[in-house]
Amino acid sequence: MTSLVRPGVDLATWDPEDPDRWDKRFAWRTLWITTYNLMLAFCVWYLVSAIAPRLNDIGFDLSKGELYWLVAVPGLAGGTMRLIYMFLPPIVGTRTLVGGSATLLLLPMLGWTFAVRDASTPYWVLILLAAAAGVGGGAFSGFMPSTSYFFPKRMSGTALGLQAGIGNFGVSLIQFLTPWVVGFGLLGTAALTPQQTSTGENLWLHNAGLVLIPWVVLGMVLAAVFLRRVPVQANFRQQLDIFREKHTWIMTAIYLMTFGAFSGFAAQLGLIIVNEYGGFENAPDPLKFAFLGPLIGSATRAGFGPLCDRFGGAVWTLVSGIGMTVSTAITLLFLSPTDVGQFGGFLAGMLAIFFFAGIGNAGTFKQMPMIFPKRQAGGVIGFTASIAAFGPFLVGITLSMVSPRSFFVGCTVFFALCTVLTWVYYARPGAPKPS
User: Fold this and answer.
1) Which domains can be identified in the chain, with CATH numbers?
2) Cα 272–278–281 angle (5° rounding)?
């Protein structure tokens, strides 16, 4: 067992930029175990978005505004938790960070399992459980900076792109699994009787919380056995120096464009479909389409990591900004529809937004290790991810106050501004920080 756990070099002298003080096998094993746990964390973070569209079907009586808030709260909680998680990698180390986070994921999964079984569950309890799901979003700002300590800069785009892309796949996984697993009793849980819909259909909605519990337990075990920490250490006060850097704030705005949009639209897409197209005859089932956008964005993020290593991250972030701006403007044409046939255009526009957001997510995570020193890069990765994690909250709350059309107009303007920032500071010839 010792040979499986210990790297080929002394961790006390670990330096990814020096081949003699870096163990490639150990680094990749750490990446895969952390990525596995990150994917499960994203599943938990988006658990509420997968459950919410069916709550009223099983006896709950929630308004559109209450549903938007319910799906938005994990984003608020996740963003807030990321502001804490961003400081943890150099303080507690990788093993404690990953294993402890996996343990916390069990709380919202079990909580939602029992909450959906009783339609009289108070709304405030649902809000608290939605907040608890935020731990899945918070983990990202600890896992990603931690991984950046294990790989040289020349491989940062590939490593971080794979981890974030496969981790983001958890959004699609829970939204894809939920419509399937709610249709039958899971093995060993037959005692948990189904909920009845208004049409007399049996629905095991509690399975959405149950289905991943064994896999989370496996993640806890893998972290405890195989993960270790590398000697990158800094206390809370030392890590605050990133806020004196102008480029911390510029990259935060740009990452809010890419991941903020990805996370926000991923959480709210099902409800947008219901509220925009649900009134038509033969309306589209939101749960059959909600997973597609996150799936495309996640795959794009993972696939473009090597391209960012080869050509630089800034050029792909620029492509992302242009694509997101145009796609959002086009999607505007299919809001406030007059016919259900317009849904195809709306869905195509949304999937394009997710595609270009995925490219930008890969580009920005290549840029940050190039712009900042390693320890600062980890902090900036954590902070930008913290702010962008408010995406589900910002999108949900804004949609509860203004029309989708007005919201998409605002997004188009913001995306255009961030694209200009990318060009001026990072992508143009002679840019201050080419990356």
Assistant:
1) 2-427 (1.20.1250.20)
2) 155
Show the CA angle centred on residue 164, arms to residues 147 and 146, nearest 5°.
15
Name the nearest CA neighbour of 34 among 211, 202, 223, 284: 223
Distance CA 289, CA 310 (A): 34
- For residues 243 and 250, what is the distance between their CA atoms, to the nearest angstrom? 11
Answer yes or no: pTM beyond 0.70.
yes
Residue 83 neighbours by CB distance under 10 Å: 17
Both structure tokens of 21: 């003080």
Distances (CA, A) of 394 to 108, 143, 289, 397: 22, 23, 22, 5
How far apart CA 260 and CA 238 sit, in angstroms, is 27
User: How far apart (Å, rounded) are the C-alpha atoms in residues 140 and 380?
Assistant: 13
Cα angle 123-44-335, degrees, rounded to a multiple of 5: 70
The pLDDT assigned to 2 comes to 45
Q: What is the pLDDT of residue 5?
A: 58
CB-hemisphere CA count at 13 Å for 296? 18
Tell me what pLDDT residue 231 has: 63
For the chain, what percent of residues have pLDDT higher than 70? 93
DSSP 255-276: HIIIIIHHHHHHHHHHHHHHHH
CA 432 to chain centroid: 30
CA atoms 426, 428, 430, 434: torsion sign? positive
The pLDDT tens digits of the residues spanning 214-231 come to: 999 999 999 999 988 876
Helix (H) / strand (E) containing 354: helix 343-371
Helix axes of 292-311 and 261-277: crossing angle, nearest 10 degrees: 150
Tell me which H or E stretch contains 195: strand 195-196
Q: What is the pLDDT of residues 348-387, one digit of tens each?
A: 999 999 999 999 999 998 999 899 887 688 788 888 988 8
- φ/ψ of residue 195, rounded to 5: -90, 155
Q: Specify the DSSP class assigned to residue 185.
A: P
Per-residue pLDDT band at 145 (split at 50, 70, 90): confident
Helical residues (DSSP H) of 52-154, grouped into ranges? 64-85, 89-92, 94-115, 123-132, 134-138, 140-148
Cβ neighbours of residue 305 under 8 Å, at least 6 residues apart?
A: 157, 158, 159, 160, 161, 162, 165, 362, 365, 366
- The token pair at 323 is 């694509």
pLDDT digits (tens, 9 = 90+) for 85-103: 888 888 888 899 999 999 9
Closest CA to 260 of 328, 211, 182: 328
- Report the distance separating Cα 166 and Cα 140, nearest Å: 12
